[in-house]
Design goal:
About 35% of the residues lie in helices and about 10% in strands. It is built from five helices and five strands, in the order βαβββααβαα. Strands 3-2-4-1-5 form a five-stranded mixed sheet, sandwiched between helices.
Length: about 180
């Protein structure tokens, strides 16, 4: 087994209703296709995926170096939360993810630390100019939850979240239109 020193949290940047009636295995297969067919990688880049209902699926085997953070894959495990489309790195966890994802992510971190010892836990946005995973991992870890989160985190079906996704869609459409001019 390779030496593991860090867990890096990611988001799939998909809408909350993306493949909602499909099992996590279908979502994993689609993300694997994005990585292998579209990017030419040997496998899905993430080691674990967490669906919106809290279901966890294994991606790339833990024994293999991932492909999830340029220049930081050695010694890391990539965990991807399904969702996060239109998120910002300053968002609260509950703005883009569910309470079940929160519980599953905490459980996966605990299980990995029980297996590999104390691991640093970071977000993709700490290493790249990206919103991913769509919240501040250090802030989330410091409090055991997001400091802006209510006692019961909201599901991302709230009106504010819907508006944020709509704005992201408008931004993407505008960028595409301006790029094609």
């Amino acid at each position: 087994m390779r030496k593991i020193t860090e867990i890096v949290i990611h988001a799939s940047a998909t809408r909350p209703d993306w493949m909602t009636e499909r099992p996590i295995t279908d979502k994993l297969a689609e993300i694997r296709r994005w990585h292998t067919t579209d990017r030419g990688w040997s496998d899905i880049g993430y080691h674990l995926l967490i669906d919106r209902d809290g279901t966890v699926a294994a991606g790339r085997p833990l024994e293999r170096t991932g492909a999830h953070v340029r220049g930081r894959n050695t010694g890391t495990i990539g965990i991807c939360l399904i969702g996060g489309h239109g998120s910002a790195k300053t968002d609260a966890f509950h703005d883009n993810f569910t309470i079940r994802q929160h519980a599953a992510l905490k459980a996966q971190i605990a299980a990995l630390q029980a297996r590999f010892g104390t691991l640093r836990v970071t977000g993709h946005n700490q290493y790249a100019a990206k919103a991913c995973p769509g919240f501040s991992v250090p802030q989330w870890l410091a409090t055991g939850r997001d400091t802006r989160a209510p006692e019961t985190p909201k599901d991302s079906s709230t009106e504010a979240a819907r508006l944020r996704w709509r704005l992201a869609e408008i931004r993407d459409t505008a960028a595409s239109a301006l790029g094609g001019a």
